[in-house]
Amino acid sequence: MRRTLTAIAFVLTFLLGCLPVQVSGASEPTEHTFMLTEADLAYVESDTCRQDWVTGSPATDLETAETMLDERGVRIKPGNPVATATALARTLRVSKDYEKRDTAGKAILLSHELVHYCQRDEQGHTAFEESYFASAGRWRAEVPAYLQSFRTMLLQCMPIPVVEAAIEKRIMTMRDTYLLWDIEPTQYETETRRIWRSVLDVPEHCVAAANDAGQAEAA
Ligand SMILES: [Zn+2]
Do strands 91-95 and 75-80 pair parallel, antiparallel, or not at all (unpaired)? Predict the structure, then answer.
C-alpha cells in the first residue's frame, strides 16, 4: 500500500512538473502593450535633428529660428484652434495668442517646431504624417523635439525645477495621448523621462551669470 502511494505521488509530481508554466503577470505583447524597439531608442538617441544654433539669447534665437523656417519654405500662421502649434506641411499653424508670447517663449516653441521640419524633410512629408499618428512614430517625433525645447529652456537659464516641472507636465500629456489610443504608456514614460532628464544640467554661462548676480548682491 505504502509503495503504491509513493508511486502515485511520484507520477503526480512528474505530471505536474511537465505542465506548462504560467508566469503570472506576463502576457503576450498585444497592440495595447506596444513596446519600444531598439530601433526606436537608437533613432531618438542619435538625435539627428538636434539644433545646435540655439544660444540661449531669446532675441537672437527667435531671429535665427524665423530665418531657418523661412529657408525651409515654412510660413508661420496664427489661429490654430486646437494646439499651441501644428507643423502642417509648409504652414506652421500657431495658436492665436502666439503674438502675446514673450520672445523667450517664441524661441522655445520655434526651436521645437524646427526639429519637426527637419524630421519631415528627412523622412518625407507623407511618411512623417503617417508615422505621427502611430504610437512609436509619435514617440520618435516628439521625444527629440521636446528634448530641444528643454535644452532651449536650460540655455535661457531657466531654473532646473522649472524645466523638471515642464518635463513632468509633458509626460502627463503624452500619457493621455497613449491612454486615448488604448495603449499602456508605462514603458514610454520610463524611457522618455530618462532621455529628457539626461539634459538637466546648468549651462556654464548660466553658472557664471548666477555667480555675477550673487557677487553684485553681496557688494
Ligand atoms: Zn511637437
Answer: parallel
Q: Distance between CA atoms of 85 and 104, rounded to whole angstroms?
A: 16
Q: How far is the CA of 203 from the centre of ligand 1 (A)?
A: 24
Find where cell 490654430 sits: 80
Spacing, Cα 113 to ligand 1 middle (Å): 6
User: In 3D, which of 209, 205, 108, 86 has the Cα closest to residue 162?
Assistant: 108
CA of 186 to the centre of ligand 1 (A): 20
Span 132-186, pLDDT tens digits: 888 889 999 999 999 999 999 999 999 999 999 999 999 999 999 888 888 888 8
Q: Hey, where are the domains in the chain?
A: 102-218
- Indicate whether this model's pTM tops 0.85: no
Among 119, 122, 85, CA closest to 105: 85
